[in-house]
Structures are given as structure tokens and as C-alpha cells.
Amino acid sequence: MKTIYMKDLTNYFNQEIEISGFVDKIRDLQFVQFIIVRDSTGKTQITIEKNETNQVMNDMVSHLTKESTIVAKGVIYERPNVKLRGMEFIPSMLEITSVSEEQLPIDILDYTNATEKELRLDNRFLDLRTERNYLIFKAQTLCEMAMREYWLENNFIEIHSPKILGTASESGAEVFKMDYFGRTVYLAQSPQFYKQMAMAAGFNNVFEIAPVFRAEKSHTAYHATEFTSVDCEISWIKSHHDVMDMEEAFCKRMLLKLKTDISEEYKRIYNKEFNLNDVAFPRISFAECKQIIQEKYHYTGEKAFDIDRREEELIGMYAKKTFNCDFVFVTEYPFAARPFYHMLDESGLTKSFDLLYCGVEITTGAQREHRLDILKKQATEKGLPLESLEFYFNFFKYGVPPHGGLGFGLTRFLMKLFDTESIREVTLLYRGPNRVNP
Questions:
Q1: Is 0.85 surpassed by the pTM of this model?
Q2: Other CB atoms within 10 Å distance of the CB of residue 238
């Protein structure tokens, strides 16, 4: 007999079916026993009268512990007087498939307990059993699905670039080194060079959703040593604004997917609604951004050539108040704040951008420099040894179209979407300077 998901039970009233799941609650009363059982899609109540016919099941339930797993066969009935979903399951057979220890290492439901945060990460498999956490990863799935749908409709192909590199990527800083059959190799910080190789290969438009690695001893709420990066690159662009147009389109597609599929759960569990409107994402130049923050909020950032966390928050507040938009592009950063492969405009500023969502940077993107002589010149200005980049420069020797792209931080987006304190809470298994387990 096929097991029926909890979310589908209303389709099977008065039918004999099989359900399975974790034991959420148990009430063992004088004349009746109640078990609340849950799977990833919902919960339902199992009701067992205490009598001779049910003696075997009654004995099983009297020794049952919460978080054990069970399978039950029986009939699902519509019961308007039952508080949980107006239904109850009357079993004819009950099987305990695994028994949980009675004392759990964490209180699954008390997710606000600050003293348990590290302990919850140690026991992440238990921490993830709540519907709050399940919804986060359901949203992550829908986000990736929406982006893929958009890209496939617009002539993109998916690539899988290598994560073991013979040469340190980009600047060579903050990379993990490892032994590879007697030689030193590096874990990829991003698929940047290989996305550009795909442009040189004539692939036109590509995307990749994959892990990247950053060897930075950062203990902030926004950083991890391993995280999932969403990357894409497009050919034949006129400027970085074409890349921003593309990102705005897939972000709106993503929010529409979330609103369509999980708005009720989002409202019920988090008491939030998706802010979905047709407002164009505002685009504010770096220089204008600095001016707005200084004049309106009387704050001067830590760096003249970049934007710090407080500035991100303030320009996010400004975008929300002025444009009623949770997103804002900050454009044309100074070359000092950007990698050597970002194209420069006539004034010497980069044709680049960051996308901020609710006051947190979730994307860096740009038009790339595709002219080899200029590319080498900019690498030299950054103090990079050209010989270490020879494999990369080789991509540009035989014709490559004007192109640009971005890297999208999915965990940062989810962090703000669900108002969590850290990306740890929206990462399946977090990796940081002091955490490599479980």
C-alpha cells in the first residue's frame, strides 16, 4: 500500500490508507490515546480507543516516545470537532519503525534559546525537524527552480565547473590549499574564470549553482567558508546594465514563484508576506550612494572606495522609503574595490554593481574586460603575476564576445527573506572557521 503524504489526506476521506512519520506528541488518557504524527508536508491526529481489540496498539503507544517513527494503516475521517485540520485517523495496524531516546539533546521547538545555538548546529538533523526550517529549504528549492526556469526560457545552459584548481583563482587570496598527488592545488573561490571560458567557447549564456570555498577567518553572520553560489554569465552585452536587467527579471520570477507556492505557509509560520510589486529596482551610482548616506543619515563609511555593512543598511532603508523596493543596485564602483577583470568606463570607474536586498549585499556583478591587452594591463595594476594567469589569458587569444555576469548569494537572500540572525540558520550544514561537523 502506498504511503499518503499528510498534505493530501483530504483526498482520501473514508478510505483505507497508510500513513507514516515522526511522533510529534502523545496523549495517553484513561480511555483513549492520541498520537500527533508528522511528515515533511504536515501533521494529523491518530486516535486509538483503549479496548481489547486495540490491546496490542494500546501497549505499543504506552511505551512510545516522541520523535520515534511509525507506520499506520487505517481510515481517515473528516471530523470538524478535531482542532488539528478537522480530521482524524483511526488505525487498524500500527508499526513502530524506530524508537527515539526519551531525552533529546535539544528542545526542538525552542529555537529562540540563544544558549543552544551551537548545540543545535551539533544536532542539526534534529534542529531541521521543525516546519519553520523545512519551509526555508522548500523556499530554497523554489528559488532555484524559478531561476532555472527563467534561464532555460532565455537560452541558457547549465555548466559544472571544476572545484579543484591548479592555479589559485582570481586574486589568489583566501584560498584553501590541498595536496593533490604530491602537488599543491586549490579549492575554487568561484567559477568566474570558467564562466568566461564558456563565453569564449560560444555558449552565449550559462549558469551554475554549486559550492564555492573561501578561506577567510570571518565570524560574521554573513560569511561561511563553504557556501552555495548562484552564478551566471551572458554574451553580447552592451553594458553592465544588461546584466542588471537579467538579474532583476529572475529575482522577480523567483519572488512570484515563492508567493504562488508558499505564501500561506510563510504568513502562518513567519507572519510575513512577500513584497511583490512591479517597481523597477532602483540603480544608484556608488558616488551618489555615498552622498545620500552622508547627507541624509550623517554617516561616513569606513572605506572611501567601498561600502561597509552600515552603509548597506542605510541605502537599503533609503530604497525602501523612496522607491518602496527591497532591492537596490549600487553601480560604478572604483577600480580599487573590484577585481582586475571588471571593465572600466571612460572615467576609470568599473562597469560593475552590487545588488542589495533588505540592506544586505547579495550579488556582485559586472561587464567583464574581454580585450586581452587591457585585461593584462589591469592585472598588472593590481600587482598580479601575469604568468600565474596565463591559462586564463589564453581564453581571450582567439576571439571572445563582450560579456558580463554575476554571483548571487542564495543564503544571504534566504537569511533576509526569513529574518534569521545568520546564514547558519538557512544553510543545511554550516561550515565556518570553527565548524566542520557534523
A1: yes
A2: 9
Q: What angle do CA 97, 103, 109 make, to 5 degrees?
A: 90
Instruction: Please provide the DSSP assignment of 47-91 as one string.
Output: EEE-SSTTHHHHHHHHT--TT-EEEEEEEEEE-TT-TTTTEEEEE
Q: Which amino acid is present at 64?
A: L
Residues of the chain with confidence (pLDDT) below 50: none
Using alpha carbons, select from 77, 64, 60, 83 the residue that is nearest to residue 16: 77
Q: List CB contacts of 285: < 8 A, sequence separation 6 or more.
A: 330, 331, 332
Where does residue 223 fall: left (phi above 0), alpha (psi -120 to 50 degrees), or beta otherwise?
Answer: beta
Backbone dihedral region of 265: left (phi > 0), alpha (psi from -120 to 50 degrees) or beta? Answer: alpha
pLDDT reported for residue 116 = 85
Three-state DSSP at 281 gives coil
34 SS3 class = strand
Residues 206 and 293 in one domain: yes
Q: How many domains does the chain have?
A: 2
Q: Are residues 156 and 50 in the same domain?
A: no
Instruction: Look at residue 111 in the predicted model and tell me its pLDDT.
Output: 76
Q: What are phi and psi of 363, to 5 degrees?
A: -150, 140
Q: Compute φ and ψ for 413, nearest 5 degrees.
A: -60, -45
Task: Examine the domain organization and report whether 146 and 76 are in the same domain.
Answer: no
User: Which residues are paired to 177 by β-bridges?
Assistant: 186
CB 428 within 8 A of CB 227: no
Q: From CA 66, how far away is CA 4, in angstroms rounded?
A: 21
Q: In the chain, helix, strand, coil percent, each to 5? A: 35, 30, 35
Instruction: Please indicate, yes or no, whether residues 74 and 138 belong to a single structural domain of this protein.
Output: no
Residues contacting residue 157 through CB under 8 Å, at least 6 positions apart: 203, 205, 206, 207
Q: Residue 168: its pLDDT value, please?
A: 75
| Rounded Cα distance, 203 and 235, in Å | 8
**CB of 48 within 8 A of CB of 29?**
no
Place of cell 533588505: 358
For 36-49, give one letter per residue: b (16+ CB within 10 A) or e. Answer: bbbbeebbbbbbbe
**Predicted pLDDT at 277:** 79
> Cα separations (Å) of 16 from 6, 45, 73, 77, 90?
14, 15, 7, 10, 9
CATH of the domain at 70: 2.40.50.140
The confidence score (pLDDT) of residue 216 equals 87
Q: Is residue 173 classed as helix, strand or coil in its secondary structure?
A: coil
pLDDT value of residue 170: 62
The boundaries of the domain holding residue 181 are 131-426
